[in-house]
């Protein structure tokens, strides 16, 4: 019997490993080994000056630390460093959750049109998410139970702007099988754009009728899709 892969969960911009708590608990209850990480462009002591490559290095190190087969699950911006880093032979599958599936030479800022969206609040080298007109709760957590959404908003942190500007130097989806979870009620990431990126990567598409954060609103459904990918 082949070795069961470890599942590595990579969070998106402004978030942290905490975002995966419900999914991680359920996977572990099902017998999976699970690892998470906090990306340095959000969680380093000083995020100013940190780039996408710093996050990619962190993902690459987390993959290497497993010492065996890995399935990497990446949400939103987390798909960018994952795409750059998940080229190791140990990576068996990538699961993109409403994630940016970019190609070599592309940046996240370029992918959204070259101009920061109206809900990014850029303050020099860092950016926060959400404005009075476009609150983070509605953008990220529209279908999450209100008290849980409020708690999640309180945990969002500033992000290094350079992470959005640096282009990728590699694209793991060119050689790795992938699954793409399309979030059909996403206020941040239009469904057609998600479908287009999934098609580019040749991903198996799974759909959830959720906002941008199905790991909080429908964790059981997310777990089911991850397990499908991990079983091969």
TrEMBL record:
Residues 7-224 form the AB hydrolase-1 domain. This is AB hydrolase-1 domain-containing protein. One of its GO terms (molecular function) is catalytic activity. It comes from the Bacteria. It comes from Microbacterium lemovicicum. Pfam families: Abhydrolase_6 (PF12697). SUPFAM superfamilies: alpha/beta-Hydrolases.
């Amino acid at each position: 019997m082949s070795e069961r892969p470890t599942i590595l969960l990579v969070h998106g911009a402004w978030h942290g490993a905490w975002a995966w708590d419900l999914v991680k608990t359920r996977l572990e209850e099902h017998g999976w080994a699970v690892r998470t990480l906090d990306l340095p462009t959000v969680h380093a002591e000083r995020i100013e000056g940190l780039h996408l490559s710093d996050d990619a290095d962190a993902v690459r190190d987390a993959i290497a630390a497993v010492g065996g087969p890995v399935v990497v699950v990446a949400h939103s911006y987390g798909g960018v460093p994952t795409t750059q880093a998940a080229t190791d032979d140990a990576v068996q599958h990538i699961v993109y959750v409403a994630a940016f599936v970019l190609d070599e030479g592309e940046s996240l800022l370029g992918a959204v049109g070259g101009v920061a969206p109206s809900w990014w609040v850029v303050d020099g080298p860092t950016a926060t998410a959400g404005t009075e007109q476009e609150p983070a709760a509605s953008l990220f957590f529209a279908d999450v139970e209100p008290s849980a959404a409020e708690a999640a908003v309180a945990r969002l942190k500033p992000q290094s702007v350079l992470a959005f500007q640096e282009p990728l130097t590699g694209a793991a989806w060119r050689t790795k099988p992938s699954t793409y979870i399309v979030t059909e009620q996403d206020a941040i990431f239009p469904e057609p754009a998600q479908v287009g990126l999934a098609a580019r990567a040749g991903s198996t598409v799974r759909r959830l009728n959720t906002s941008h954060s199905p790991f909080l609103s429908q964790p059981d459904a997310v777990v089911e899709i991850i397990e499908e990918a991990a079983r091969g």
